[in-house]
Amino acid sequence: MRVHRTVIALLCTTLQLCFGTVYAWSFFQTMLVRQAGWTFSQTAWAFSITIFSLGVSAAWAGQVLPRLGPRKLAVIGSILFSGGYIIAAAALRLDMLPLFYIGYGVIGGAGIGLGYVTPVATVAKWFPDHKGLVTGIVVMGFGVGAFLLSKGLAPLLVVRAGEELAQVFFWLGVIFACLLIPCSLLLSDPPAPSELSKVVAGPDAPQAAEDETAVKTYLGSQQFVFMWIVFFFNIAAGITVISFQSELLQEVWGLSDPSLEPATLAGYGATLIAISSLCNGVGRLFWGLLSDRIGRVKVFRILLASQMVVFGVLMTETNPWIFSILVCYVLLCFGGGFATMPPFVLDVFGSRKMSSIYGAVLTAWAAAGIVGPVYLGYLKDVYPDRAVMYCFLVGILMLGGGFLFSYLLTDDRMRLGRPTLEGTLREFGIPASGRG
What we know:
Helices cover 81% and strands 0% of the residues. The chain has helices spanning 5-19, 26-36, 40-68, 70-94, 97-126, 131-160, 165-185, 195-201, 208-219, 222-256, 262-294, 296-314, 320-349, 354-361, 363-382, 387-406, 421-427.
C-alpha cells in the first residue's frame, strides 16, 4: 500500500510522542513511594534501568535498522513498550519490585530504544529536501510526549482508577498498543531510493568491509571519546532533574506554603512536568538551529556553562516560581544536547558512518540514566532535608567536567590517513571507478 510522505511524518511523530512519555516518570514517583511502600532509591532504579535499556537498545537498533527495515523494528519496539506497562501493572498488583524492574525497566526501555531511532531515520529518507525541518519536528515529539501524559492521559486514568496505579499502568499499556502498533505497521521506506539514502547507504557492498573497519577506528579515537563524555555529562545533569522534578517542586512548594494539600502539590508537580517537557521539545529545535550558525562545540559549551550557573541558583532557591523557570531551562538544554549531537557526529565522521557512530554515542544516554537518578534517589533517602542542595551541587560538578572536556573537541572533519580523491568520492557515495 502506497502511503503519502506527509502521513509517514505524522506516523513518525505519533511514535515519538508515545515513546517520549517516559520523561513523565516523576509523575508516578511519589505515588509509587506512597502506595507501594518502595523507597526513592528503589523507584529511581526503575527509571534508571529504563533509560539504560533505552540507550543500549537504541545503539543496537541503529546497526540493524538497514537490514530489518523500519516496520519490523517499530512493531517490535511498540509491542515491548506496551507490554512493559502491562507487566509493570502485574508487578504492582503482586507487589513485586523485581518484576516491575523487568517490565517497566528492561522490556519497556528496550521497546523505546528500538522505536527511538526508527522514526527519525525513516522520515529523513522520505524528506531529503526538508530533512532538517522534518526530523526536528519528529524529534521534538519525543520531548513533548511527557506533556500529553502528565497533563492529559495520566491524570484522567488516575481519577478513573481511584489512584490505583496497577490499573493506570495496565490501561496505559493497552492505549499505547492501540496507537503504536497500527502506526508501526504503516511505516515503510520510500519506494525509490532518495538522495539521502544513497549518501547514507553508499554505492554498493564493496565498501562494506572498509566502512566497518573505519567505524571501529573512529570509535577508538580521542574525538569520539571526548564527544561521548561531553554528551554523558549533559544528559546526566538533565536526567537527574527529569527523574525527580515533580517531587523536587513539591518540596519547594511545601516549604513555601505548608498549608497546601498533597493533591494540590501533586498538581503543581504535574504542571511542571508538562511545561518542562515542552521546553525539552522546543530546545531540540532552537539549539539545533543555533548549532548550524555558530558550530556544535560552541553550543555544547553554552549548554554546559549556562546550566552550571542555573544549578548554582537552584541549590538555594526557595521561590517555587523561579525554581520552576530554572528547571524548564535545564530541560531546554537537555533537549538541545540531543538536537546538536547528531549533526555533530555527521560533521566529524561523515554521513556513511553516521548511524553506526551515533548509535554508539547513545550509550552515553544509557550510562547517564544509571548514574543520575540513582544518586539522587540515594540522597533523598539518606539526606531528605538536604537532598535538593546536594543534587544540584553534584550536577554542577558533572557539568563542569563536561565543560572542561568540551575544550578538547573540534568541529573539524576526522579522516583516516591522508585524504584521497577516491576516498572523498566514496565518502559521498560516488563510485571511484565511475568518476570519468
